[in-house]
Task: inverse folding
C-alpha cells in the first residue's frame, strides 16, 4: 500500500510540473508522498509485534508486551496520518490564501513530528528486543530452530527504521525552514532524503519478506488474517 501511494504521488508530481500554477495538483502529490511512509511504519510495527509473539511471546520490550506493540504504535501512526491528511486538505483548499496555506503546512509539520517521536521510541524497543534475543541465544543456542532467520529481519527492520527516521527528519527540517528554504528549493534533497530512502525500504521488504524467511509460527493462530495484513502493508 505504501508503494502504491508513493507511485500515485510521483505520477501526480509529474503532472504538476506541467501545470505549476495548479495548487490542487501540488497538494495532492504532496499528501500522497508525505503519507506513504506511514504505511511502511505500520508494517514495521506489525513486524516487530509478530517477531516478539513468535519468538518470545511472554517477553516485554521497554515495558510493552508483544500483544500491545503493534496496537499502540499503529494507533499513533493513524493519528499522525490523519493530522497530516488534515494539513494536506487545508493546504489544498488554500488556493491563493497564504495564511491558510501556512496553517496547512504547520499542521503537516505537527503530524510529522508526532510520527518522528513515535518512530524514534519504536526504534528503541526494536533495539531492546534484539538485545534480549542475543541474550537468549547466548544462553540456549539456536541449533534446530526453524526460525533462525529472525536476525535477518531485525537488521532489515533497523535499516528501514533508520531510513524512515532520516526521511521524517528531512521533512520536519524542510517545513521548519519554510517555503523557499534551502531544502525546499533544491530538489536533489527531496530525491536523496525522501524518494531514495523509501525506495530502498520497499526493495528490502520485498527481497527479505518475513513470510519467506520464517518457517513456522510467524502468522500465529489467525494465519490467513495475518497474511492478508502483512501482504497489504508491504504491497
Result:
Amino acid at each position: 500500500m505504501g508503494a502504491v501511494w508513493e507511485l500515485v504521488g510521483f505520477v501526480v508530481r509529474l503532472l504538476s510540473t506541467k501545470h505549476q500554477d495548479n495548487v490542487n495538483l501540488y497538494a495532492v502529490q504532496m499528501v500522497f508522498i508525505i503519507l506513504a511512509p506511514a504505511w511502511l511504519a505500520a508494517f514495521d510495527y506489525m513486524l516487530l509485534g509478530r517477531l516478539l509473539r513468535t519468538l518470545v511471546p511472554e517477553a516485554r520490550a521497554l515495558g510493552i508486551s508483544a500483544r500491545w506493540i503493534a496496537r499502540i504504535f499503529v494507533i499513533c501512526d493513524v493519528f499522525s496520518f490523519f493530522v497530516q491528511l488534515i494539513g494536506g486538505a487545508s493546504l489544498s483548499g488554500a488556493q491563493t490564501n497564504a495564511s491558510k496555506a501556512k496553517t496547512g503546512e504547520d499542521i503537516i509539520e505537527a503530524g510529522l513530528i508526532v510520527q518522528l517521536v513515535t518512530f524514534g521510541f519504536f526504534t528503541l524497543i526494536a533495539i531492546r528486543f534484539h538485545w534480549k534475543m542475543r541474550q537468549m541465544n547466548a544462553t540456549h543456542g539456536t541449533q534446530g530452530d526453524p526460525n533462525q532467520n529472525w536476525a535477518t529481519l531485525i537488521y532489515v527492520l533497523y535499516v528501514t527504521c533508520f531510513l524512515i527516521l532520516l526521511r521524517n527528519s528531512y521533512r520536519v527540517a524542510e517545513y521548519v525552514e519554510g517555503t523557499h528554504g534551502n531544502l525546499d528549493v533544491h530538489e536533489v534533497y527531496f530525491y536523496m532524503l525522501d524518494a531514495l530512502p523509501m525506495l530502498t525500504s520497499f526493495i528490502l521488504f520485498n527481497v527479505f519478506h518475513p513470510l519467506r524467511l520464517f518457517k513456522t509460527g510467524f502468522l500465529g493462530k489467525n494465519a490467513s488474517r495475518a497474511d492478508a495484513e502483512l501482504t497489504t502493508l508491504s504491497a
